[in-house]
Amino acid sequence: MDMQELTNTAKKMVAQDKGLLAMDESINTCNKRFAVLGISSAVESRRAYRELILTTPSLNAYISGVILSDETIRQEKLDGTSFMKLIDDAGIIAGIKVDNGTVAMPNHDGERITEGLDNLSERLQEYYAMGARFAKWRAVITIGEGMPTDACIESNTHALAIYAAFCQEAGLVPIVEPEVLMEGDHTLSQCKEATEKVLRSLFNQLYIHGVALEGLFLKPNMVVPGLNCKQQESIQEVAEATVNCFLNCVPAAVAGIVLLSGGQSSKLATGRLNAMNQKFGFKLPWPLSFSFGRALQDPAFEIWGGENIHVDAAQKALLFRAQRNWLANRGEYSAVEDIKHDLESNVTVSK
Question: How does DSSP assign 298-338, residue by residue?
Fold first, then answer.
């Protein structure tokens, strides 16, 4: 393990208030999104959309790193330039999703466990040789009757810790993503309780496996009520619950926290991130940033719609959302500017 290389990479990933763009959707997930807008599920459609993202002018002003899938890391522009060269030339750090998705957990109805530890060491070495310098592994935790169980939490956090240790051994900064899902009718306090339980288990496992926290990022959910919960707390209440949860559970040595959006709308995710940094930013022991997927991509994706004539407008929408989240990292985001931008651009984001 080259600790200096890991810490140098980690510092670059949160430098200048920049964040991460998650574009690591699986082929199936990508195709499902395309189907909604009537876009072909062919590999060329996925390649074209990813080229749109990676050729967005000035994206590196607000984005420090991009998380890729195995398919994307091997793709090229139409002119034959590899995506990896494109990313490197832009001064952006390439990351790679290395888990193989989730499967039903035996004897635990409604709960899932993430797969992908088989041959992980060899795969990480290949990705490092291709130019990747960080990786991501996602676990999912469901809140429901009798859930999450200790078995589900321990199994998933154990796998996250093993993955993280393999990453650091291969020279990649691990992002550990234990996502407590938004689906359900649970309250904000129930989400906070579950999230804290998961994070305590996670950092215990990371300690057991000798993972260096200063070369690691946490990618957690925000503490929010379930989508079907009757009581939906304010942006400020969510911000306070989320930050207090992290302060209770996340060691100061961690290189940073990069929040996931988890299905929130673009503006809501940005507003909550802004509220956290506005009130607590100067008090926090670690950078608090973003690693958003749909919350960054959705406006651009809907504008593009699979049509090349819309690429320029889609890229402008992506850059705008990246800038808005960069401002949120500084506690300087204004929702009023979002409304003004939508009116001036005559952009209607479907609900």
Answer: HHHHHHHTT-GGGHHHHHHHHHHHHHHHHHHHTT---HHHH
Per-residue pLDDT of 61-116, as tens digits, reads 999 999 999 999 999 999 999 999 999 999 999 999 999 999 999 999 999 999 99
Residues with Cβ within 8 Å of 103's Cβ and at least 6 positions away in sequence, in order, are 112, 113, 115
Q: 37 with 306: CB under 8 angstroms?
A: yes
User: Cβ(201)–Cβ(157) under 8 Å?
Assistant: yes
- The answer to whether residues 210 and 44 touch, using CB atoms and an 8 Å cutoff, is no
- Catalytic residues, by residue number, are 177, 219
Q: Which among 66, 202, 216, 57 is positioned nearest to 132, based on CA atoms?
A: 66
**Each residue of 145-196: pLDDT tens digit?**
999 999 999 999 999 999 999 999 999 999 999 999 999 999 999 999 999 9
Residue 100, sorted as left (phi over 0), alpha (psi -120 to 50) or beta, turns out to be alpha
Domain 3-345: top CATH class:
alpha beta
Spatial contact of 249 and 206, defined as CB atoms under 8 Å apart: no
